[in-house]
Amino acid sequence: MLTVADKVVFQNVSFTYAGDSKPALNHISLTIHQGETVLIAGPAGAGKTTLCRCINGLVPHYFRGHVEGRVLVGDIDTKVSSISALSHVAAMLFQDPSSQLVNPTVFDEIAFGPENYGVPRDEILVRVKESIQSMRLDGYEERNPHSLSGGEQQACGLAAIVSMRPDVYVLDEPTSNLDPIGSMRVLAHLAELSRTENATTIIVEHKLEELLPLVDRLIVMQDGGIVAEGEPRRMFEDAESMTKLGLKTPQTALLFSRLRRFDPSLKIPITFDEAVSEMSPFLKPRMKGDARPTPREPSDPKNADHGDTVIHTEDLVHVYEAGTVALQGVTVDIRKKDFLAIIGQNGSGKTTLVKHFDGLLRPTKGKVLVFGLDASQASIRQLSTKVGYCFQNPDHQICTDSVRKELEFGPRNLELPESEIQKRVDEVTEAIGLREMLTDNPFNRSKGERQRIAVASVLTMKPDVLVVDEPTTGQDDRMARQMMEFYRKLHDEDGKTIIVITHDMNLAAEYANRVFVMWNGQILLSGSPREVFAKSEEIEKTYLKAPQITRFAQALKSFGFPPDVLTVDEMYREVAKRIGG
Amino acid sequence: MAFEYVPGNTFFHKLDPRVKFLWWIVVMIMAVGLGTDPIYLGVVFISIFVVMRLANIPFNKVTSFLKGMAPVVAMYAIFNLLFPPIATDVKNPYIFFYLIPARTLPVSLEACIWTAGAVLRFLMILLVIRTILMITPIRDIIITFVKLKLPADFALALSIGLAYVPVLIDENTKIKEAQQARGWRYEYRNPAKRFNALLKQMFVPAIFNSMRRTGDIAIAIESRGFSHDIARRTYVRQLKYTRSDYIVTAVLLLAMLVGLAVGTWGLHWASYVNVARMIRQFLPSSSS
């Protein structure tokens, strides 16, 4: 029944975690062949990670629960094998690189797997050397993996499983902590692996734009089941239903599916280059409308319409104790009506900059004024009523056993009268919709909810400025948009100044009204999203990428498209205008 | 930080970690086995500083370490000063003063000299450990444990623990900052108040996070075959005894023998009792 070519087989598998009532996997039947590269996508909570865990035996040997059906890896039944035996065949890379790097040096990290399997010493030395070269980690052999940057950590984690020479690679969001170019690098390594080693690769990712051209098959999961499956090109023929399934459809694919109104036979491109080369033959015979770029309202260079300055830094320099120069002379004005997105590569100084706004860091040199207050003199407590700071990981922040206590925590620290505390808790509860969970233990809520609780507990401090550090990392598109909508509401309706640090260029383009591009401890570009993303060449120098649709419009500038298109809607209107639709 | 490797290429860096370990054992034996004769201990003490100097260890790292240890050393000193086990050796100690009137808790010359020796002994053991950790990468320490037939899983667990120290420090800093950003204060003068604040607000997230971390690490190492067959595991890092290792081993063993011999039979004049007697000649006679 089982042929050699069938590498991973799920036979009607259901799994319910011990203590849960709802199954995480629901009657999954799936066959993955030797040498195939499969992408698993779908919204958070769809069961993608659980599916991965089944393959190397973490389910049911580490995560216990009720299992039905059979999972076969090669000819091994995972139920009767062990995690370590299965991992030799099917190695797994996890989402958070820092929690899987367990050795004192990069060299030991990469040797760790083969050492455990008793591979001869000489063979291990060869493998480690190869892995280090192919992941471009030369010179890092004796460094502590935790001292590497996010991208290097991910490369090290990948090198550490490549050296195990498994038949199957299972990769659970291998690029979620990375900036666009870093992700591209890791994904390119993966593509090369599956080509050169004929390995079977199973990837869970939200970043479809980069991955679709690299995979043989796309599997979409929802509520523990497989809802769609097939060759990516064929599946994106219906790009809109893919989006409805919660996928982050590439912007050009969305555009083309809408342009089918004009030409039902239009093929949906899945790569950027395809999109560009297919656009010309579509446009050329139809061009009759207005080819001039839509005039833009002139943007005020001084941002005067953004209101008063709330935060001002002057020649701000920060040098960490270890001697790293994290900021080298930053001068900025942040204004009342800013919805500011700060983008930049890992380690470019984004977090260091914003930590000066509420006194968590003090300037090594230069000045920071927060509402006219000298931030190097004021206490963190004083500043915390002006600038609220939401950390990336809500679990670093939540410190009480009920949502209500969590919301009261800040105002209590400020020693406000009890009536004021209760008033604030009520207001925030109402605004964020936490009413029904007020008495719950925050640690029992989902990650998305914990994130909202963490934000709410900062809002009860009534800050005028809200700083949010990577609020959408590792979330699916729908959740990310919900979070951003929420900040937009705080900005538009409650008049808060919002500062968001993000890796997601599409969200920055859509939601922000001002963008800083940081590079090497300096602000390289600043302006409205249009002004900034129009300079996509300069952006690429900082290892970032403007949104796909922006680059698409720029690639077609011979048709008169403006270089600062930000959304699919806008691009659709530009095209429609030109073909007279 | 307690585990800080200072990279270098000196003779001492390059020694086999087992030799470094032997150095520690020898110092222990010499320090503990020979009572607290200040002159004798002083000689061994200086030899440690010579090694530090030759291994190019930055002196500020040593002083910052000593500063960190100061409270412990001070307690140790006070304890020795007030309760020296000298009654059997010295019938008539030279008393400086009584801590509590009515002739209780005397502070005597003999106790001072005894304490000086005891503190030297204590510092020596600490400094040798500190020096070894500064000239030996963590992975070599682990291999030493394995070679010394400690259980492999114990040695690896230790290695993972040490590799995680910076991560945990980083995590706790984040937790602290997240609380401070909501107006939380812990910089109270009163240590009880400070402790209480730290405990309450750091404890919950720190425990939650370390539990999650522990789970993640268990999954990660299992997924890399950790418990596959520990007995037949390969160790890529190997230790090789070189000629200089043999020479240093011989020197250390010889030093220990000579030291023990001299300390036991030859150097009686240097015992704290005799040193005290010598000093007493220059002091006015005791009031008691």
Q: Topology of this structure?
A:
The complex is a heterodimer of chains A (581) and B (288).
Chain A: E1 6-17, E2 25-33, E3 37-41, H1 48-55, H2 58-61, E4 65-73, E5 76-77, H3 83-89, E6 90-93, H4 106-116, H5 121-134, H6 150-162, E7 168-172, H7 180-197, E8 200-204, H8 208-211, E9 217-222, E10 225-230, H9 232-235, H10 239-244, H11 251-259, H12 272-283, E11 309-319, E12 325-335, E13 339-344, H13 350-355, E14 365-370, E15 373-374, H14 380-384, E16 387-390, H15 403-413, H16 418-432, H17 447-459, E17 465-469, H18 477-492, E18 497-501, H19 505-511, E19 514-519, E20 522-527, H20 529-534, H21 536-541, H22 548-555, H23 568-579
Parallel strand pairs in A: 3-8, 3-9, 6-7, 7-8, 13-18, 13-19, 16-17, 17-18
Antiparallel strand pairs in A: 1-2, 1-4, 4-5, 9-10, 11-12, 11-14, 14-15, 19-20
Helix pairs in contact in A: 4-5, 4-6, 5-6, 11-23, 15-16, 15-17
Chain B: H1 11-14, H2 17-33, H3 38-54, H4 59-82, E1 95-100, E2 104-108, H5 109-135, H6 138-147, H7 152-180, H8 191-222, H9 243-266, H10 272-280
What does this structure look like?
The complex is a heterodimer of chains A (581) and B (288). In chain A, β19 and β20 form a beta hairpin. In chain A, the strands form 4 sheets. In chain A, strands 6-7-8-3-9-10 form a 6-stranded mixed sheet, sandwiched between helices. Chain A has a 6-stranded mixed sheet with strand order 16-17-18-13-19-20. Chain A has a 4-stranded antiparallel sheet with strand order 2-1-4-5, covered by helices on one side. The longest helix of chain A is centred in the first third of the chain and has 18 residues, at 180-197. Chain A is an alpha/beta fold and 581 residues long. Chain B has 288 residues and is mainly alpha-helical. Chain B folds into 2 domains: 11-142 and 241-280, no CATH class; 151-232, no CATH class. Chain B has helices at residues 11-14, 17-33, 38-54, 59-82, 109-135, 138-147, 152-180, 191-222, 243-266, 272-280; strands spanning 95-100, 104-108. A two-stranded antiparallel sheet of chain B has the order 1-2. In chain B, a hairpin with a 3-residue loop joins β1 and β2. Chain B starts with 10 loop residues before the first helix and ends in an 8-residue tail after the last helix. At the A-B interface, α3, α4, α5, α14 and α15 of A face α6, α7 and α8 of B.
